[in-house]
Amino acid sequence: MTSDSSGSSVSSGFFIPDPLGLSPDAEGYFGAFGGKFIPEALVAAVDEVAVEYEKAKGDPAFTAELNDLMVNYTGRPSALTEVPRFAAEAGGARVFLKREDLNHTGSHKINNVLGQALLTKRMGKTRVIAETGAGQHGVATATACALFGLECTIYMGEIDTERQALNVARMRMLGAEVVPVKSGSRTLKDAINEAFRDWVANVDRTHYLFGTVAGPHPFPAMVRDFHRVIGVEARRQILERAGRLPDAAVACVGGGSNAIGLFHAFLADQAVRLVGCEPAGHGIATGEHAATLSAGEPGILHGSRSYVLQDEEGQITEPYSISAGLDYPGIGPEHAYLKDSGRGEYRAVTDDDAMQALLLLSRTEGIIPAIESAHALAGALEVGRELGEDGLLVVNLSGRGDKDMDTAARYFGLYDGESAK
Amino acid sequence: MSGNIQLLSDTLAAARSEGRAALIAYLPAGFPTVDGGIDAVKAVFDGGADVVEVGLPHSDPVLDGPVIQTADDIALKGGVKIADVMRTVREAYEATGKPVLVMTYWNPIDRYGIERFTAELAAAGGAGCILPDLPVQESDEWRQHAEKHGLATVFVVAPSSKDDRLAKITAVGSGFVYAASLMGVTGTRQSVGAQAQDLVRRTRATTELPVCVGLGVSDAAQAAEVASFADGVIVGSAFVKLMLEAPDREAGLVAVRALAADLAEGVRKR
């Protein structure tokens, strides 16, 4: 037995909302970040989500149904895989991957989606809308809607429908309507804008199944709670496998859901560094990036105060990343809080470094990660080298790379019949 | 210099005493150009608008439909700045002596600085602001500065607003209350929902402020219908659409002036 308090309670269930009491305040603030900056038309609906979620959290039937789905549908717990051949490039530190890529639908996104889909049923709503960037949240949402017989519309930036065409086909196969969004930068932020417009008009029967830990309260805390299972499992698993807590927990951050899911169970473990890896795109100095915490300023986007990429007059600037799932100019408010409090550390990883990490993991371990997750792998290589041979890392492998094969093949020239270098 | 909240209240009271609804028009600043936008505001005043809301374009207008999104895009690509919005307000006010409000999303003001924004808007002769994504519970700091500078804070209420929430909002709002006629984003509609009348009734039960109805109104018949139960009729997308469709700038100005004249007749036919 270990002295692990949050890990030992995992036997009683996977869905354990916020046992550390690290909730936002009544208005949804984590320190200076969060809140509910929403149009009046959505106030009643957002409040309904908050009230219903509070009820659901305390309802053993809800917890039991969600835990049953996590085990028998998603396939939890997900494996923790040690990757020694990859770790040889990480300064010899021991590296373990939390295998959220092995979940049903291929990423961590299903954790949150199943929770909110059950909530949708509780609220008596029959239609679900969602935004998606890489398509992983859209696929997970379309999956849950098929499972529960809910009508489903997914908004996706037009650029993303092109670079993630496989996921568009998957969503349509599952019966969802996929709407390519042609406004603005035609990526994730514009998909969210369009989903909000739909929600305002159809709120009576529609739940907006928001896909990350951003948005108005209660979404940041609720989505985090549904993903806490990642860190709860990983903490227990690393204690069993390595006999101690890791030196660092590493994850990629776009909106920040997989990262907060991993980090949260380690928050009270002050010795565990929480390292978020942001997309630096072509490099922060080029201006073509989506490194919100590294290069942004506090502001309001999509319903909450957090860091955002913006100009001096508060116009949101267009982000860029090779990864559709990280191509977002905002970040969840709890990450902004973790950054400012110093508990979280955030570093930026370029497209090139992420793609090299993607190649390295594929070649050394036979695991093709999503480009999003490859940002965490690249960050882990750096942190591992800083720690040296005694280092111990847990890295969230948030999704699998199948959806990215077209982007990767073009990047590495695989369509030319050459092997990647 | 203090802002023109009193002018706004007096204008709405004058319409009421004439036994009619006020006509409130919306046009984005910087569309199609800064000077073109100023001319458009003057044209709708000339046509008969009592109040104009000048839009401060935003990169992420989540409450706007495709028409205003397109205009915002054009304005932002043209490089419109907050200084241009202030100039639009100033020139429109100085040319007409009528109340001019600013309507925008919260982030541009939050970023620009609340004190700086309210001081500049008051100095430009502005009458107040409509901030549809700044909910009442987040509005304390804004309202302190707006009040200090003589600016109205016009809150939006929606058909989904519950009665206790309406009371909370109207207790701290000023100028008028913007009642959204339906659940949705900006844009012209075939008909204005029956929800609007009920919302106006429920809102009036909480406040003496004028209650003006917006979203979806595009022609004189709809304006007359809304005027039968509201203190003001707010029209935006219909004006912007005319300007988008006009073959040239002059034709656009003629068209918006004519629509304002039609609508001004409509609000007198309650």
Overall 3D geometry of chain A? globular
Instruction: Classify the beta-strand content of chain B into a percent band.
Output: 5-15%
The SSE order of chain B reads HEHEHHEHHEHEEHEHEHEHH
The gyration radius over C-alpha positions of chain B equals 17 Å
Quantity of strands of chain A, as a count? 14
Structural class of chain B: alpha/beta
How many alpha or pi helices of chain B? 12
CATH class of chain B: Alpha Beta
Q: Are there runs of chain A of 5+ residues with pLDDT below 50, and where?
A: 1-13
Number of β-strand runs of chain B: 9
Brief digest:
The complex is a heterodimer of chains A (421) and B (270). Chain A has 16 helices and 14 strands.
What's the helix and strand layout?
The complex is a heterodimer of chains A (421) and B (270).
Chain A: H1 5-8, E1 29-30, E2 33-34, H2 40-57, H3 60-74, E3 80-82, H4 84-87, E4 94-99, H5 109-122, E5 127-132, H6 136-148, E6 151-157, H7 158-163, H8 165-173, E7 177-181, H9 188-202, E8 206-208, H10 219-242, E9 248-252, H11 257-263, E10 273-281, H12 292-295, E11 297-301, E12 304-308, H13 333-341, E13 344-350, H14 351-365, H15 371-387, E14 392-397, H16 405-412
Parallel strand pairs in A: 4-14, 5-6, 5-8, 6-7, 9-10, 9-14, 10-13
Antiparallel strand pairs in A: 1-2, 3-4, 11-12
Helix pairs in contact in A: 3-5, 5-6, 5-10, 6-8, 10-11, 14-15
Chain B: H1 5-17, E1 22-28, H2 34-47, E2 51-55, H3 66-77, H4 82-96, E3 100-103, H5 106-112, H6 114-123, E4 128-130, H7 140-148, E5 152-154, E6 156-157, H8 163-172, E7 177-180, H9 195-204, E8 211-214, H10 220-227, E9 232-235, H11 237-245, H12 249-266
Helix pairs in contact in B: 2-4, 2-12, 6-7, 10-12, 11-12
